Amino acid sequence: MNNYIEIIFHAVTVEQSEILIAQLSEEGFEGFEENENELKAFIPKTGYDVHVINEIAKRYDIHFSQYEVKQENWNQLWESNFQPVVVNDFAAVRAEFHPHFPNVKHEITITPKMSFGTGHHATTRMMMEQMSEIDFAGKMVFDFGTGTGILAILAEKLGAKGILAIDNDDWSIENARENFKMNNCTVAKIVKADSADQHQRFDIILANIVKNVILANMDFMVGSLNKGGVLLLSGLLPEDEADILECAKKRSLIVDKKTQQNQWLCLRFLY
């Protein structure tokens, strides 16, 4: 059984918390819990490198504590802190143990395991908000880095005719598959992969990942995007914007909309 390491960063600001989440996601951390002036981050014990944490903590002058958590206790801990998320009157994300939300257009039920994308993080929420403005009816959709599968589920609820969701993490694959079933998804397909090179054509591509992964896969994403298609990106910090825009311009992508929440960006491009 693979236990987890829980890192608690103390006395952090909202901005520091968001930056830490982005950097720790790249280092293999699989779950985060944001509280007032505190960030909890979780990683499998086998993938934990204390030197990485020491370096990050030193860089931002942040103190941290660490504990070992048994895997069977992880979900109980995660669920006890999971609260429903409502995105205006457009969508609500809840767990099975929460009551229904009758006054939203789309309700998504997920098992709140450690996969990224419960709707609480600003990047996921911005993706959902922008998805409300996109016509998914009859479209082919690619969800690159699906996490919990929440964006793929929403795409199906919005009328997509086909959805390919990929992730490179076994736990995310298992969690997304479970969430697809819970939401009665019939056209969303989940595949384990670490590259956007999937040899298919899409009308809409969703990528809520970090900058380096987006840049490394931009050619694959644009190469599989149909003319007139939409590329929706998040997981980006303000300092990432110039590099993303330069990369997009070279590939004939046109900026359609930009939103920002809590030091995170969401960029929509037309092809």
Overall description:
- By secondary structure, this protein is α/β, with parallel strands linked by helices.
- It has two domains: 4-80, Alpha-Beta Plaits; 122-270, Rossmann fold (3-Layer(aba) Sandwich).
- The chain is built from eight helices and 14 strands.
- Strands 10-9-8-11-12-14-13 form a seven-stranded mixed β-sheet, sandwiched between helices. Strands 2-3-1-4 form a four-stranded antiparallel β-sheet. It has a three-stranded mixed β-sheet with strand order 5-6-7, with helices on one face.
- Helix 7 packs parallel to helix 8.
- The chain is globular, with a radius of gyration of 18 Å.
- It starts with a strand and ends with a strand.
- The mean pLDDT is 90.
Q: Which terms would index this structure?
A:
four-stranded antiparallel beta sheet; seven-stranded mixed beta sheet; 2 domains; Alpha-Beta Plaits; globular; Rossmann fold; 271 residues; alpha/beta
